[in-house]
Amino acid sequence: MIPMICNIGLPLYRLVIVPGMGCLGWFAMAQFSCASPQEPPVANVAVATGAISQSGKPTPCSGAVDHPAFNAWAKVAESLCIRCHNSDGDGAESRFVLRIPASVRDRDSISFNVALLWNLASEKTDNQSLLFAKATGGLDHGGGVVVTKESTQAKVLSTLGDSVGDLTTWIPTEHDRLLDENHAAMFDGISMMSPTRLLRRVTLSLAGRLPTKPELSSVASEGMAGLEKLLPLILDEPAFYERLREGYNDILLTRGIEDNAETLLSYDHFEKSRLWYQDYDLNDLPENERERARWKLADVYRDALLREPYELILYIVRKDRPFTEVITADYMMVSPYTARGYGIYEEIKDQFRDPKNPFEYIPAKLRALRGRDGKVQETATGWYPHSGLLSMFHYLRRYPSTETNRNRLRARMVYQHWLGVDVMALAPRSADASAVAAKYAIPVMQAPDCVVCHRTIDPLAGLFQNFSFEGYVGPRKEGWYTDMFGPGFEREAIGAEELWRSPQWLGQKIAQDRRFAIAVVEHVYYILYGRKPALAPTDIEDPQFHRKRCAYRAQRAMLEKAADVFRQSNDSLKQVFLTLIASEFYRADGIFESSREAMVPDQQADWNDLGVVRLLSPEQLERKIGAIFGKPWGRLRDEMAILYGGIDSLAVTDRNLDPSGAMGAVQRMMANDVACEHVAKDFRLPPAERRLFPSVELTDLPSDPAAEGSLRKAISDLHFQLLGREDEPKSNSVTETLELLREVHASAKQQTGLPTNESYFCGGREEFRSEDPLFTLRSWRAVVTYLLRQREFLYE
Question: Is residue 766 over pLDDT 80?
Answer without folding.
Answer: no
